[in-house]
């Protein structure tokens, strides 16, 4: 009967409401934890270079009589300062990306151009390591987005592919477009990633091998920046890897549709 039905429905609604509240609370708690972790990680990441900077300043002070020593310490001081600047920039960039869900004022971006430029930015580092980078980017495909953000994302993937390659290794970068999607694939034959680590590499500050990653100068933010950039562009990023054989990272983005053909002016007589 009606009152019975009504009270059952009210009870259901009530349960749903309580569930919603509970979900909300756990989401808020989760975000809070994420925020606290982030701050803890940042302070941890900054402590090492800051400690180095003050040690080096002291060392320069006490080596005042030896110009060669002073020069060497000053050089290292510069390198540590550069590292601090890089981490700070990446943290700022990442928090901006996380604060928004979409790209501000998207424009038509030529994907081939972005990819070719990102590879060029990595040529010197690749050359120093004798890593050959082969590019195939001739699709003419375009996406809507922020060219600067997309460049950083592709740059990070290519830089990683080189950093985690052996000396003399090969890296392949390719763009393909089909079915309304543009795919950018970056493949290396480097150290690879264990299956258990695959999901985690996109987390902020996550590094499979802390010592090795520190030597490559990474901050552990590169792939988090890639992930958030790609998500803000409505796409996704995936990774395949075999430990000891290499990895492939692929970014998929929705292709921008061709602008409609200019329509013939309407015939006023008809
Ligand atoms: P990092 O600055 O340490 O490179 P990233 O966020 O770019 O930070 O990458 C996170 C971790 O994922 C790296 O420390 C490394 O362990 C692993 N990784 C990323 N790219 C590759 C790759 N191409 N091959 C093997 N491992 C990789």
From TrEMBL:
Catalytic activity: ATP + protein L-histidine = ADP + protein N-phospho-L-histidine
GO molecular function: phosphoprotein phosphatase activity; phosphorelay sensor kinase activity
Compartments, record wording: Cell membrane
Entry superkingdom: Bacteria
Gene Ontology process terms (BP): cellular response to phosphate starvation
Keywords for this protein: Kinase, Phosphoprotein, Transferase, Two-component regulatory system
Domain Histidine kinase: 41-257
One cellular-component annotation, GO: plasma membrane
Main location: membrane
Name assigned to this protein: Sensor-like histidine kinase SenX3
Naturally occurring in which organism (per UniProt): Agromyces archimandritae
Included stretch of the parent chain: 117 to 386 of 399
């Amino acid at each position: 009967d009606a009152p019975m039905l009504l009270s059952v429905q009210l009870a259901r609604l009530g349960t749903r409401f309580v569930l919603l509240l509970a979900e909300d609370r756990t989401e808020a708690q989760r975000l809070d934890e994420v925020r606290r972790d982030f701050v803890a990680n940042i302070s941890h990441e900054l402590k090492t270079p800051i400690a180095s900077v003050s040690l080096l300043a002291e060392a320069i002070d006490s080596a005042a009589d030896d110009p060669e020593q002073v020069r060497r310490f000053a050089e290292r001081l510069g390198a540590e300062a550069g590292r601090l600047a890089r981490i700070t920039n990446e943290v700022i960039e990442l928090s901006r990306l996380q604060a928004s869900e979409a790209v501000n004022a998207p424009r038509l971006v030529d994907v081939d151009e972005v990819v070719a430029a990102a590879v060029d930015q990595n040529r010197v580092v690749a050359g120093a390591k004798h890593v050959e980078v082969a590019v195939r980017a001739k699709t003419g495909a375009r996406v809507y987005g922020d060219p600067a953000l997309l460049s950083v994302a592709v740059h990070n993937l290519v830089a990683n592919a080189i950093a985690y390659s052996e000396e003399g290794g090969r890296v392949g970068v390719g763009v393909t477009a089909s079915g309304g999607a543009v795919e950018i694939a970056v493949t290396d034959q480097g150290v690879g990633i264990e299956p258990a680590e695959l999901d985690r590499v996109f987390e902020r500050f996550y590094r499979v091998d802390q010592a090795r990653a520190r030597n490559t100068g990474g901050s552990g933010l590169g792939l988090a920046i890639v992930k958030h950039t790609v998500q803000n562009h409505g796409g996704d990023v995936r990774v395949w890897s075999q430990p000891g054989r290499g990895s492939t990272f692929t970014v998929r983005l929705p292709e921008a549709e061709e602008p409609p053909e200019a329509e013939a002016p309407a015939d006023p007589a008809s």
